[in-house]
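Batch manifest line 276
LIGAND: adenosine monophosphate
JOB: complex structure
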Amino acid sequence: MLRYDLHCHSTWSDGVLAPADVVRRAAERKVDVLALTDHDEMGGVAEARDAAADSGVKFVAGTEISVSYLTHTIHVLGLGVDADNPALLEGLKSVRHGRDDRARRMGESLAKAGIAGAYEGALTYAGNVSLLSRTHFARFLVERGHVHDTHACFKRFLVPGKPGYVEHVWADLPDAIGWIHGAGGLAVLAHPGRYRVTATGMRKLLDTFRDAGGDGIEIISSSHTPEQFGEYAALARVYGFMGSVGSDFHAPGESWLDLGDSPPLPEGVTPIWNDW
Ligand code: AMP
Ligand code: MN
Ligand code: MN
Ligand code: MN
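JOB STATUS: finished
ARTIFACT:
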């Protein structure tokens, strides 16, 4: 059985490895099919594709689009997209636009809470100025000793209601799915278990995602517990979604699932790669 990992990040967003190094690590860890899915960005695709050809990994071009849904931010993966599609590239650019301003506001907000220089500090961790992410702030705040690890850092500083969090408007769901489909890809709701919604709220989200044309949901993810693998497999069957698998790798040692560590999809779920 082929080993799939369809969600990971490079230095083009908030990962710490260059695209070619992500691919080499995946190859060492016996991944057969890899999708690179940087946040709102596909600049790493060409390098990753070349490295994959050299290491015998089948490469899938992808991206993870930030979307505003009701009061939530959700993430939608585009898998198997044409990385040169003008409308998709334009769409991603529009989503990236505003990240720098948001990051400055995060810096100001942290300054008011007594932490100076966070914007400049976060920048030193970013490979790409137009893609400053909360992760870069977290790495800075941890390194400066304000908090002991990135998980605690998010809880204390970077989620709604905390000093480093500022509101931001991302893409519309129908737009994001339209860009992905227009570029020949499949739209997958990333790590549904991470969204803070009730059971009813989750059904509403899945209804909305399906009505907007969504193709699949991520079932195996480092954001899910093993119990959630089963829960989201059941929801995929009920809603008729295909299922996807991804470590959401950002950095060695940062999460319990490294590249290629994902268990297989539960029985009875159609894999997102069914027609590839
Ligand atoms: P942004 O797109 O700038 O809002 O940053 C979102 C990124 O922050 C996600 O892609 C994750 O990499 C990271 N992230 C979000 N929540 C957490 C958390 N609770 N612990 C660690 N990393 C997180
Ligand atoms: Mn990330
Ligand atoms: Mn995500
Ligand atoms: Mn991700």
